[in-house]
Specification:
The complex is a heterodimer of chains A (113) and B (110). By secondary structure, chain A is mainly beta. In chain A, 0% of the residues lie in helices and 51% in strands. Chain B is mainly beta. Chain B contains no helices and eleven strands. Chain B is globular. Chain B starts with a strand and ends with a strand. Classes of the chains: A mainly beta (113), B mainly beta (110). Chains A and B meet through strand 4, strand 5 and strand 10 of A and strand 4, strand 5, strand 9 and strand 10 of B.
Amino acid sequence: EAAVTQSPRNKVTVTGGNVTLSCRQTNSHNYMYWYRQDTGHGLRLIHYSYGAGNLQIGDVPDGYKATRTTQEDFFLLLELASPSQTSLYFCASSDAGGRQAPLFGEGTRLSVL
Amino acid sequence: QQKVQQSPESLIVPEGGMASLNCTFSDRNSQYFWWYRQHSGEGPKALMSIFSNGDKKEGRFTAHLNKASLYVSLHIKDSQPSDSALYFCAVGTGGYKVVFGSGTRLLVSP
């Protein structure tokens, strides 16, 4: 069964801290995405990738780095976390980019104190 | 840059009633449209797709697309309390990414 698994599910850090959010998909999809979800803003694209070693900038990239180490694994890095990055983060994968509905993970809730 | 806007922000309908959700988009090259549903504590899940102008019915759910008017909608007939959720409109142009609207929160009151 197609799946996208995120870890951790919940994370609390302090301002200035380093955080890494992990995502693994077992769907053999080429495209992977990181979104953040905030009330009133919906789902906003942070970074995405269409293959191992590839990285594309999304619509709200400031303060975030990402790395795609394999076809399965996509990481989101917050190197100097700020309270404005408190949010619900979702990873998604797709086999056909903008021509296919992305499949989402269950999300990571991040709080930056 | 693609703009996807949804209305209303929130909606309350009685059990058994009809819920109507609206979505407009800005890029006339848009070709792929989906409705997603997200229950509390879960990730968004694709509910249905529509790619051609007109209506598409799946059970109690009907999606409508009018590309010339840059408009897509979702109608839920005989709404159930289990339909209470956050609904997203999602639009693809065939490139690398899908753009989501800000969502409509639906509450179906028993």
